[in-house]
Amino acid sequence: VPYFTFLIQLDGHYTCGGRNLTCIPPSIPSSVEMLDFSFNFLPTLRRTVFPQLYNLKLLDLTRCHIHHITDDAFHNVKNVATLILTGNPVSYIGPDGLNSLRKLQRLVLVDTGLSSLNVQFNNLTGLQELNIGTNNIQSMALPPFMIKFRDFSSLNLHANNISILRVDDTDVLRRMRGNITLILSRNPILYIEPGTFQNLHLRELNIRSAFVSLDAQRDGLKGLGGLNVGKLIIGSYREHHSNTKDINDLDGLCLINFEEVYFFQNKWLDLSSHVFRCMVNATKITLKQGHVRVIEPVPFRRLKELHIDKNRLEEIPQLSNIQSLEKLVVVNNNQVLFRGLRNMPSLRHVDLSRNQMSLGSCCFRYFSDTPNIRHLNLSLNANIMFLAKPFSGLDLLEVLDFHHTEIGVVGQFGLLQNMKNLKYLDLSYTSNTFSSTSSFSGLTSLKVLKIAGNAFQEETLGYLFENLIVLEVLDMSNCGIDRLVWRDFRDLQRLQHLLLSQNRLTALDFLAQANLPSLKQLALDQNSISSIPQNTLQNLPKNLSVFDLSFNPIICLCTQRYLIQWIIKHQKMFPKPHNVLCKTLQTDSKMRAIEFDIESCIHAPIRTLVLSICAVLLFVLASVLVYRFQFYLRYGCVLLRGYRASRQQECSYDAFVIYSSKDESWVMDELVENLENGIPPIHLYEGIMGSRKIIVVISKHFIESSWCRFEFEVAQSWLVTQGNANIIIIILEDVEEEKTKKVFGLHKHLKKNTYLKWSGNPISNMRFWIRLRKAVIS
Ligand SMILES: *[C@@H]1O[C@H](CO)[C@@H](O)[C@H](O)[C@H]1NC(C)=O
Ligand SMILES: *[C@@H]1O[C@H](CO)[C@@H](O)[C@H](O)[C@H]1NC(C)=O
Ligand SMILES: *[C@@H]1O[C@H](CO)[C@@H](O)[C@H](O)[C@H]1NC(C)=O
Ligand SMILES: *[C@@H]1O[C@H](CO)[C@@H](O)[C@H](O)[C@H]1NC(C)=O
Ligand SMILES: *[C@@H]1O[C@H](CO)[C@@H](O)[C@H](O)[C@H]1NC(C)=O
Ligand SMILES: *[C@@H]1O[C@H](CO)[C@@H](O)[C@H](O)[C@H]1NC(C)=O
Ligand SMILES: *[C@@H]1O[C@H](CO)[C@@H](O)[C@H](O)[C@H]1NC(C)=O
Prior knowledge:
Layout: E1 8-10, E2 13-15, E3 34-36, E4 44-45, E5 58-60, E6 68-69, E7 82-84, E8 92-93, E9 106-108, E10 129-131, E11 154-156, E12 164-165, H1 171-175, E13 180-183, E14 191-192, E15 201-206, H2 214-223, E16 228-234, E17 257-264, E18 284-288, E19 305-309, E20 327-331, E21 341-342, E22 349-351, E23 358-362, E24 367-368, E25 375-377, E26 383-386, E27 399-401, H3 410-413, E28 424-426, E29 433-434, E30 448-450, E31 455-456, H4 461-464, E32 473-475, E33 497-499, H5 509-513, E34 521-523, H6 534-538, E35 546-548, H7 561-569, H8 598-628, H9 630-648, E36 653-658, H10 664-677, E37 684-685, E38 691-698, H11 700-704, H12 706-722, E39 727-731, H13 737-740, H14 746-751, E40 755-757, H15 762-777
Parallel strand pairs: 2-3, 3-5, 4-6, 5-7, 6-8, 7-9, 9-10, 10-11, 11-13, 12-14, 13-15, 15-16, 16-17, 17-18, 18-19, 19-20, 20-22, 21-24, 22-25, 23-26, 25-27, 27-28, 28-30, 29-31, 30-32, 32-33, 33-34, 34-35, 36-37, 36-38, 38-39, 39-40
Antiparallel strand pairs: 1-2
The chain binds 2-acetamido-2-deoxy-beta-D-glucopyranose (NAG) (7 copies).
One 2-acetamido-2-deoxy-beta-D-glucopyranose (NAG) binds next to loops.
Membrane topology: Single-pass type I membrane protein
Organism: Pygocentrus nattereri (Red-bellied piranha)
Transmembrane segments: 609-627
């Protein structure tokens, strides 16, 4: 298979990873800038591996089984700025191998089996970032030539085998330009010689999980004394050797000058309440996943941001009077106590969500002299009781979030009126019933309103959103709404997202008239909509691009063809078209609207037409056949009637007469008269099967009548099957011999002279009747 079939191009980024290729496809255009060639097979990297790609900036050779890199290996890709060699078991790199990459800025040698940094890359003076994580390096000392690397900014030694740091190890680092990020996380550090970091300036130091034990960390922090660092990331160590918690565990931090500190704990660790003591000069503190119960207040002087996430705090720290604090985030504690914040003129952002707090007399009492708060998040707490005018003095509030906190009364008393700056209000699942039509009046800046999971008093809905003229997002999911009218939304001309999921709506007629020109998203999933009229579909807002109809009982019938066709045609609008389901009788069976067979609706009329034509043709054919074979049918009836009669009275009739209707007068006047009225009377009958004898009246008419001929034939075959041939032939008038041959079997009778001949002569007639009577009775 030619290689180029594996090549995928995405915005000048070529990727042909994971194909076990043994050379770079020569079909790659020379303009390529990024090439992902990971997971292929290039045991020896040499010049011939690469076509000339002088525009290549990024080359990813992750896990290509590279053992050898020859001197001229990168000759054809010499302008690469980022080289990724992760996961290759490199055992040899030629002295000029890497050095020819004069423009290299980023070199990634993660997991390449390096045991030291004696790789030749001395000419790469433009190098900015060296990642040699996940190797077996035991010293963080850098080679002296790196002093010349003017732009060097990041050394990643994550997950190596560095256990001891000595003063000499930072020699080169100290003589470099500074402002470097040093990552030592996940090393087994046991000891740091005092002075190793003295007067060193780093942008960032990551020593998270860098110590073998708590004891090593305690001592190691002291070894970091004198370091100046922008951002310090600490916490967690490999093994929990020491069970003794010491209030001095983090004292070493006091010897480090840092701006920001990130303290992460993997395991629950009962930190001392003195955790902040050495952070007093920090501007930003993040404390995550500790076991902190109580925090001793410290006089922060420069603190701007404090994040405390997932701890066991019993109380929100008493942080009042921190003039510099701008952002306070204390989240994920359990049933924490909050006594309020005072005198924090810079405070803008307060997030106390997820704390299971209960607050009474909210809210301005908890925030005094904090006039600049713009963002207040009290969501996911237990319950909050409001005072009248709960936010007076907090006039700049822009964001208020109470979702999933019980605050009951807001919807009854319109407590949030006239907050002129409010832009975002989340009251979802707050156990409110909106009965006050002025609940949101005066919120003239409101852009986002979320009131999912609450209830409305029927008549309020028509007024609730009056004057919210800049509203862009309205979430009314799960509010038990069963009907909406266009007037409910008459002022919302800027509305872009309308979320009505999980309600009980059955119709969308409000949409056809509603003036929602800006609407982009309409969520109607999990309602009870079974159909949407064509005119509603035609009048949907022009900019609507997301329309969710998932899990509605759409009636999938040909009568709704336009709707299903519309859904199929506009599938791109549906976030999950497969969830647009048809109404079915069984609740567990799923039928997707987009799988409905529209073709069947289009073909059904044609099929009906074809079937109708077939039916007409069949009818015509049947009529023709009936007409053609009417004798047979009629005769069949006759036979059947006689047969039925014969079953009832065994041969109660003496003779059956076959004659032409044109000879009827003779049959009635002469034959019937003479036979039935003579002594003994002879009964004539109209069904062969009920009769013992058959009288055939031969005449010209008889010979000409196909009906008579047919009757005669049937009679003969009937008598043959009965085993006796009791046919009595009467020749009423002479018939030409030729013609008698037309009647099957007649000629035979005539030849045998077994017939009676009628003549007008009365004497012969007498003899005729005697002989006939004898023949019938015998
Ligand atoms: C990749 O190629 C090498 C050498 O051609 C071969 O030994 C190996 O089995 C191949 N691997 C796969 C997954 O095809
Ligand atoms: C590396 O730099 C030295 C000295 O500047 C130079 O002589 C040598 O050619 C360079 N090597 C490569 C491969 O560019
Ligand atoms: C890590 O270094 C120590 C010596 O400091 C050595 O004994 C140990 O074997 C090394 N670990 C590995 C995995 O090479
Ligand atoms: C250090 O690096 C950061 C980020 O690259 C930069 O914003 C800052 O100005 C640098 N500081 C010095 C002193 O070079
Ligand atoms: C905080 O800064 C002050 C003044 O710069 C200094 O005296 C004090 O030692 C510092 N405290 C800590 C814990 O770094
Ligand atoms: C409020 O906090 C909750 C939970 O931490 C979060 O999901 C939500 O996005 C926050 N609200 C705002 C407006 O940032
Ligand atoms: C519809 O979308 C277009 C393009 O995003 C935008 O320019 C236009 O203003 C929108 N119309 C309305 C009424 O919002």
